[in-house]
Amino acid sequence: MDTRDAYGATGSPRWTADLLPPHRSGVARRLGRLAKALGVQLTEPAGLLCATVALTAWRLLGPQPGSGAGARRSP
Hints:
- The protein is mainly alpha-helical.
- It has helices at 3-10, 13-19, 24-38, 45-61.
């Protein structure tokens, strides 16, 4: 389970951290980077939907050449 999936399932950074190996502050940083990259607020339903759609598209398309995306799959 990755950070976005866990956050979508729990709706809470604290509960997300309980499901994942990183400390809560690490989860908060990951969620902050994701929100900033997408220009959304993950605390709003529209922002969470945007993040879900973007992550699904990224998973389906895979990293694109020249995108700088490496093997790390967790936002």
